[in-house]
Write a structure and sequence with these properties.
The protein is of the alpha/beta class. It is built from 14 helices and 16 strands. The chain is 41% helix and 22% strand. Strand 8 and strand 9 form a beta hairpin.
Length: 427
């Protein structure tokens, strides 16, 4: 009897997750469309939808006419029914963003950091300050905050005594995430920045619908996330995806990880700028500022800058070809602040380099595409960490106790709930 009860509960949770996930991703829908998309009976979908309405996460938006029958109810998520926060820590900054259930971005705080002295405590303090600002400016939305997601540079391991961050390039060894990033009563979830980028692009962007893809993050550092069989590959303890530290030369340039010859040491943002300006102060022209100055020189046809960019595109193409040969992905999605810039100015050349260095058959099967979510991608993927828990029933809906969604929700009275397949800013 107990086994039957547990199985029934698990089935209800799976059905709830499938329906709510589909509604978050697809926007407005109907019960009939949900039944077809989720492979459920109409009665099952009706029961799940009724439960979600009771939790304050879903609402009927009106009706559409039907031929020869009763009007068909349109359904959508209640955008203000829950909120999540995503934080993107990029070594030189932390960007903290507030999203609603429809993945509409309502607020953002960005804090610049000095990477020479940055600590986990400094990052956590910046996030706390952002949360305080959100509470002051959006108290009604923060009242329905269900969780905070962190995108962190390095390896995030979930061990028996909690999650830990190993950020070798920052010289951070086994940082206890729950202790350092204690943000109050709201649950905190964390993953590597490349994996949060992968989550975002798989849910909402260029990797959506693909069961076999590689999403690469190219910035100051380089990483990747691999979608294998529709799931993100984690490896033994979470470090799968450290593609930037694969070696492409013996005795090559030194890497910030302490080794030599890493892909990141050849084509990371700082590595490219340092090759172009070897005599400049190391911190004067690194990061996005340095790369933008470098690309401006390329646009002005500075021959040395053009040659360095040509070499970087060829080497990055070589690194991506290694992924093609190893993983046989359907798509390679190129993201990160440097990756987006390279795809904009040299996307066709990069794709040619990938195909030239790959085995012929997997090269025929792969598409090399830019990420779709732009600067919001990592924070969005971080916010999806708690949202996924809410969808799966691991986090409780804010108004599930029956108090109802507050009328002071930040949306006009009577406004329909909003859903979207892409994050967007508030109108």
């Amino acid at each position: 009897m107990m086994t039957h009860s547990a199985t029934s509960k698990d089935l209800r949770l799976r059905n709830r997750a499938a329906v709510l996930r589909r509604m978050v991703l697809d926007g407005e829908t109907t019960r009939a469309d949900l039944a077809a998309a989720c492979g459920m009976s109409a009665a099952t979908v009706t029961n799940v939808v009724n439960d979600l309405i009771g939790e304050g996460l879903v609402a009927e938006l009106g009706h559409v006419p039907s031929v020869g029958g009763r009007p068909i109810a349109r359904l959508g998520v209640v955008a203000h029914g829950a909120h999540v926060v995503g934080a993107d820590f990029g070594e030189e900054w932390v960007a903290v963003k507030l999203f609603d259930l429809g993945l509409r971005r309502h607020a953002e705080v960005r804090v610049e950091l000095d990477r020479r002295t940055v600590t986990g405590e400094a990052v956590a303090s910046a996030i706390r300050d952002a949360l305080d600002r959100f509470r002051a400016e959006h108290p009604e939305r923060m009242a329905s905050l269900v969780g905070i997601g962190l995108g962190l540079p390095g390896i995030v391991e979930h061990q028996d005594d909690g999650p830990f961050l190993y950020a070798q390039t920052l010289r951070w060894r086994r940082m206890p995430i729950a202790e350092v990033f204690d943000l109050g009563d709201v649950p905190v979830f964390a993953d590597n920045v490349a994996k949060t980028l992968t989550i975002a692009e798989h849910w909402l962007g260029a990797a959506r619908g693909s069961d076999e893809a590689a999403v690469v993050l190219v910035g100051r550092g380089i990483g990747a996330g691999f979608i294998n069989g529709g799931r993100i590959l984690q490896g033994l303890a979470g470090s799968a995806g450290e593609w930037g530290h694969t070696k492409i030369s013996i005795g090559g340039p030194s890497c910030q990880c302490g080794s030599r010859g890493c892909l990141e040491a050849h084509v990371g943002g700082d590595a490219i700028v340092r090759r172009w300006l070897p005599d400049e102060d190391e911190l004067a022209f690194t990061g996005t500022h340095g790369v933008d100055r470098f690309l401006a020189a390329v646009a002005d046809e500075d021959p040395r800058a053009v040659r360095i960019l040509d070499d970087a595109v060829e080497v990055l193409g070589l690194g991506l070809a290694n992924l093609v040969n190893m993983m046989n992905p359907e798509r390679i999605v190129v993201g990160g602040w440097l990756g987006q810039r390279l795809m904009a100015v040299r996307g066709a050349e990069l794709e040619r380099a990938v195909r030239a260095h790959s085995l012929a058959r997997p090269a025929e099967q792969v598409a090399v595409v830019p990420c779709q979510l732009g600067e919001d991608a990592i924070a969005t993927g971080s916010a999806l960490l708690p949202l996924d828990r809410l969808i799966n029933g691991e986090l409780r809906a804010p108004w599930a106790a029956g108090s109802g969604v507050p009328s002071d929700s930040g949306d006009p009275p009577g406004a329909r709930p909003r859903a979207t397949g892409r994050p967007r800013t508030e109108d």
